[in-house]
Design brief:
alpha+beta; Alpha-Beta Plaits; RraB; enzyme binding; 5-stranded antiparallel β-sheet; 3 helices; about 120 residues
């Protein structure tokens, strides 16, 4: 299975899980695309490219992994409907940025949105 198909399957699972839990299908969601790497300069260049592509970019954070390794990460954020095609379009824009700089694209996430009553 190709990387795009992997992300499509994961995207579908995330959306289905949120909707089955009762998240509002009509809400606008904050989609956070996660990037990580060990080289700050490469991460910073990727963040600039994400910003130029129209995404809000969070400040880089340091995480210490179980084995003591330090990992740097940031999110590229966009508002979107909880729609597979819209989110996959974002993934398709962001994957090449991660590849260009040799950093990891770690998928995306969002938050539960209460259904309007």
């Amino acid at each position: 299975m190709s990387q795009a198909n992997d992300w499509r399957a994961e995207t579908r699972e995330i959306i289905e899980s949120l909707l089955s839990d009762g998240s509002n299908p009509d809400a606008e969601y904050i989609i956070e695309h996660h990037f990580s790497g060990q080289n700050f300069a490469k991460l910073e260049k990727a963040a600039v490219d994400c910003f130029k592509a129209g995404y809000e970019v969070t400040d880089a954070e340091e995480l210490t992994l179980e084995r003591g390794q330090t990992l740097l990460c940031f999110d590229a954020v966009a508002d979107s409907a909880l729609d597979e095609e819209q989110i996959m379009q974002q993934v398709a824009e962001l994957l090449p940025i991660a590849e260009k700089y040799g950093i990891d694209y770690d998928g995306w996430g969002t938050y539960f949105e209460e259904a309007e009553e």
